[in-house]
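Q: I'm building a small set of examples for a reading group on sequence design. Run inverse folding on the following structure and report the sequence directly after it, with nothing in between.
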């Protein structure tokens, strides 16, 4: 079959609306087009791919096996399109002197405020801060594609997702270090969960999802203790803030950067539940592309080097 080799983004949105509504009339109304026009667009989508996506013989409408596969892929295509559009608009809107930062929520609330915000304030620099829940590899691609000028990230040798930054055309500055500690909510009789464990009952672990760079550090910490306790992962979160919230609700123990939970440790609401063998160090690093010669970025970089533990040039 001859293909046109073109795909209208609107068709993907039509398809998602039809999947949600399971009815052509309601989906057409949602998309603000007539039902005949909407039906033609769905037909065009099926013709473009050469397969039936919708089973029209069922009530409500259902997807064919090919339609199920297409739905998953169309969501990826739409997300990629929207992220690309957002990145292009931000790059276009940002002035030449604006430094575009990207960091995680936990780092924004801790080391960004401590080390970077005061310097930016004193220097009168203009910052466009993107505090985000991106996956680790998205931070890497954002820097490589100049969606941002600088990323502020945790770093540990086990974080394979950040390895391209070390191999690529990037400089880094290590601002400081943070301890990565196993902690539990503290109760009247001590911590609710410990790493001592009971051979008959696994320990409830609140861990990180696959998109989080911190997951690899937790796995590394546990691998170092071959005869350690059995763990049962009861929840996975992309953000350290979310892991902290679950710990404070008493659902299990988990690893957190010390700076993120220092208040709770100080006032006794949290307790470190493992010895030194379970604690690991995280570097707090700034990365930039070596070829990014923005004057304000160079100025900030020189100032940051004056505060840093170590850097590469």
């Amino acid at each position: 079959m001859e293909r046109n080799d073109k795909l209208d983004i609107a068709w993907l949105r039509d398809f998602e609306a039809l999947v949600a509504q399971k009815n052509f009339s309601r989906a057409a109304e949602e998309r603000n087009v007539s039902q005949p026009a909407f039906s033609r667009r769905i037909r065009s989508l099926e013709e473009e791919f050469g397969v039936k996506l919708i089973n029209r013989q069922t009530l409500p409408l259902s997807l064919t096996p090919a339609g199920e596969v297409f739905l998953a892929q169309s969501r990826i295509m739409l997300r990629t399109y929207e992220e690309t559009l957002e990145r292009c608009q931000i790059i276009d809107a940002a002035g030449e002197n604006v430094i575009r930062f990207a960091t995680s929520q936990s780092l924004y609330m801790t080391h960004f405020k401590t080390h970077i915000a005061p310097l930016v304030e004193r220097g009168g620099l203009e910052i466009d801060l993107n505090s985000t829940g991106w996956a680790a590899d998205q931070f890497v691609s954002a820097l490589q594609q100049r969606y941002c000028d600088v990323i502020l990230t945790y770093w540990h040798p086990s974080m394979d997702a950040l390895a391209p930054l070390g191999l690529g055309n990037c400089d880094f500055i290590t601002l400081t270090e943070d301890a990565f500690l196993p902690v539990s909510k503290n109760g009247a009789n001590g911590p609710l969960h410990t790493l001592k464990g009971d051979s008959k009952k696994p320990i409830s672990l609140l861990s990180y999802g696959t998109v989080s760079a911190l997951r690899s550090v937790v796995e590394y910490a546990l691998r170092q203790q071959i005869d350690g306790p059995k763990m049962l992962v009861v929840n996975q979160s992309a953000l350290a803030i979310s892991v902290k919230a679950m710990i404070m609700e008493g659902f299990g123990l988990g690893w957190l950067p010390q700076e993120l939970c220092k208040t709770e440790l100080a006032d006794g609401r949290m307790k470190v539940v493992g010895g030194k063998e379970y604690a690991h160090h995280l570097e707090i690093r700034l990365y930039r592309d070596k070829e990014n010669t923005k004057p304000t970025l160079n100025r900030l970089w020189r100032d940051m080097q004056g505060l840093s533990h170590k850097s590469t040039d």
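The chain has three domains: 9-90, 95-175+284-311, 178-282.
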